[in-house]
Amino acid sequence: MTLTARLPHDRPDSGRQLDGRLPGIGAAALAVVFALVVNHFVPVLSPAVVAVVSGAALANLVGVGERLKPGLRFVAKRVLRTAIVLLGLQIAVPQVLALGWRTVAVVVLATGVTFTLTPLIGRRLGLTPGTSLLVATGVSICGAAAIAAMRESTDDSSDDDAASALSVVVLYGTTAIALVPLAASWLGLSPTQLGVWAGAAVHEVAQVAAIGAASGVLVTAVTVKLGRVILLAPIVALTSYRRRHTGPDAPGRPKQPPIIPLFVAGFLAMVALRSTGLVPGAVTTAIPQVTNILMAAALFGLGTGIDARILVKGGRALLLGAIATGLVGAVSLAGVMLLV
């Protein structure tokens, strides 16, 4: 009798929790369908970018009701982490290393210089540390996915910081689709040099793929880009370590963030698994689409927290994005011309 009486109180009401999330999850699912349709007709716009813009539009033009918020919080946090973990299955380290040490050196140098200098420049421009960090992350590593991962790993950035960084990725990454091939032609770069430069300098994987497909260097460009994506894990870990020892959660405070967030460790584990060659071909073929869907859902949830009024005033963030884009482009171009 006693055991029977306690069971309803001891068991969490997971069904009720799921019911509360369903409206928001359903809205995210509809947004993903819309994003995939737009991407089908306009391939240069990745589903993730379309989804975050859709979320912002919904929040600022219609409003997000209370019924949607639990589900949107779920996709913006839990689904995001799952998408980043699965992103690791797209990356095989041997394929990246096969590009040669010169190409790897270009990627590491361009990414490291841009990520290091961009926050310093942002500080001189009077931007918040959160905005500067997310712009640096998105431009130097892999666009929207990197911005979302860094925001999830640190506690000093807001939805508006993320919105500013995402606007940079969309604006300058899309512009690069036209400008990078033109500049490469004007500079007399070889097809291999163009592929390496695009992969090392352009923000989003979809944007790099658009350049590569149009220029006949798709495999090289995307492989180099995925080499940059690998750097997401050490850069997030390094940033978390610095926050742990120098930020508001420094030793002596009760709360300290992990040096490597669990989902970033999962990302590394998936990279290691893919690199063994044991992952079936059917899985590696399907994973990019699955990851795109999950990332689009997560970024739709993130987008619903964006205040467009603050974004419109973000001229300095766009200036920082232009400087950072120029920096990663110049450093990688110099490396390509000297080493590749």
Question: Could you describe the 3D structure shown?
Answer:
Helix content is 80%, strand content 0%. The chain has helices at residues 2-10, 14-41, 47-62, 69-87, 93-97, 101-124, 129-153, 159-187, 191-201, 205-215, 218-230, 232-246, 262-275, 281-303, 308-312, 315-339. It has one domain (18-339). The chain has 340 residues and is mainly alpha-helical. It contains 16 helices and no strands.
Principal-axes geometry comes out as: globular
DSSP E strands, number: 0
The portion of residues assigned to helices is over 70%
- Mean residue pLDDT: 85
Features:
single chain; 340 residues
Reconstruct the topology from this structure:
Elements: H1 2-10, H2 14-41, H3 47-62, H4 69-87, H5 93-97, H6 101-124, H7 129-153, H8 159-187, H9 191-201, H10 205-215, H11 218-230, H12 232-246, H13 262-275, H14 281-303, H15 308-312, H16 315-339
Helix pairs in contact: 2-3, 2-4, 2-14, 3-14, 4-7, 4-13, 4-14, 6-7, 6-9, 6-11, 6-16, 7-8, 7-11, 7-16, 8-10, 8-16, 9-10, 9-11, 9-16, 10-11, 12-13
Subcellular location: Cell membrane
Pfam families: Cons_hypoth698
Protein name: YeiH family protein
In short:
The chain has 340 residues and is mainly α.
